[in-house]
Write a structure and sequence with these properties.
single chain, five-stranded mixed sheet, 23% strand, alpha/beta, 16 strands, disordered C terminus, binds zinc ion
Length: 404
């Protein structure tokens, strides 16, 4: 019986140790560079335990020692530094947009090593998009280091996604209903790693929260503009999913019940006033520019007054959301970032006019710190989860022996 107890305890200790290895690696992955002293404080473990965990991660090749960091000027011993080895492991991040697919090879620490992009025809068939992804994946993997291990695939889609089974329930701007897109991509790619799929705004929110405009912020909303409008919500540091994981369909908030018909089937959704079609109409551009509206706005040299009514609608809609969810930061992504660059004062004035003094007091409205890569980086973060949950399980062999 004693032997059984010891085995049980040993197994439990091993499970705790593997969990702690993941936690240390997650921290180094997020910060890219840290000190053992900082890890000791954050994880509430003693120095020798952290030293042992760091040594194992060094053996796995995912971290290396860096220049020691002094905790206080001139006081105490400098603490050993630890930095991520980006090239040891990578993920494939796939950003499916309405008009294009971008695939990135992203190294540990979310280092976007290489990207490739192909434009899509209107309302592309899922199989066509998956075939396009296969070509882009081959291109970005071509010069991957042989010591670098593929550990996951992350896919972003502009639509309502059920993450549990990888189903795209509804992506109106792609014309997709009930498409098992993660399974389609997995079959075509034939790579033996986890494939995760999520809504583009949810992934943008995740990326900006982890390493963008919302670092150290627990309440954040990322609003994506990619033909349609969606939102990813982080509240109390966690993504807000709702009962079915579909929360954040901000573009279809009922904004003007007497308004224009929306392609979702309803009438007067917010998207009919602030979506790409409405903006193209406001600046007198043909509506076939909607898929590239961000670049159209970036080059816009017409009268800014033509965008003021749109800016008011953006601000009023955001005020509703701010009153409801009390975020610290609202990040405007996609073409909304381009719009924000042009008419920020008008957007802010409309937000202030509609927001109550409590929820509005700590509010910051900004653009993605990760720029146009926010969604791609979010897809990469999701794809790294398997590795960060159990580094030994994924890479449990000496560095250099794994190459695929
Ligand atoms: Zn709608």
């Amino acid at each position: 019986m004693a032997g059984v107890t010891r085995t049980g305890t040993g197994t439990n200790q091993e499970a705790v140790r593997r969990h702690n290895l993941g936690t240390v690696l997650r921290h180094v992955h997020r910060t890219r560079s840290t000190s053992r002293a900082s890890l000791t404080t954050q994880m509430a473990l003693n120095r020798s335990t952290i030293g042992g965990l760091a040594a194992t991660l060094e053996e796995l090749g995912v971290v290396r020692r860096s220049t020691p960091v002094s905790s206080r000027a001139g006081a105490g011993r400098p603490s050993a530094g630890l930095e991520v080895v980006s090239r040891r492991a990578y993920v494939l991040a796939i950003d499916v947009g309405v008009d294009r697919v971008v695939v990135g090879r992203v190294g540990l620490g979310c280092d976007v090593e290489v990207k490739a992009r192909v434009n899509l025809p209107p309302e592309p068939a899922p199989e066509h998009v998956a075939d396009t992804i296969v070509g882009l994946v081959a291109a970005v993997r071509a010069d991957a280091s042989p010591e670098s291990t593929l550990v996951g695939v992350g896919i972003s889609v502009p639509g309502v996604v059920r993450e549990a089974d990888g189903m795209v329930v509804f992506a109106p701007n792609l014309g997709w209903h009930e498409v098992p897109f993660a399974a389609i991509v997995r079959e075509k790619l034939d790579l033996d790693v986890d494939h995760v799929i999520a809504n583009d705004a949810d992934l943008g929110a995740r990326a900006e929260h982890v390493r963008g405009a919302g670092v150290d912020v627990d309440h954040l909303i990322y609003v994506s503009g990619d033909v349609g409008v969606g939102a990813g919500v982080i509240t109390a540091g966690r993504p807000l999913g709702g009962a079915g994981g579909f929360a954040g369909e901000l573009g279809h908030m009922s904004y003007d019940p007497q308004g224009l018909r929306c392609h979702c089937g309803s009438r007067g959704c917010w998207e009919t006033q602030v979506g790409a079609v409405a903006i193209a109409r406001a600046i007198g551009a043909p509506t076939d520019v909607v898929a590239t509206l961000d670049t159209v706005l970036d080059d816009f040299d017409g009268p800014l007054e033509s965008l003021h009514e749109i800016a008011r609608h953006v601000g009023h809609g955001l005020a509703n959301v701010v009153n409801l969810l009390n975020p610290q930061v609202v990040v405007l992504g996609g073409y909304l970032a381009s719009l924000h660059r042009l008419v920020e004062p008008e957007i802010l004035a409309a937000v202030r006019a509609g927001v109550m003094s409590g929820p509005g007091s700590q509010l910051r409205v900004t653009r993605p710190a990760l720029g146009g890569d926010a969604v791609l980086v979010g897809a990469a973060e999701a794809a790294f989860e398997s590795l960060l949950a159990d580094p030994v399980g994924m890479l449990g062999v000496p560095a250099g022996a794994v190459a695929r």
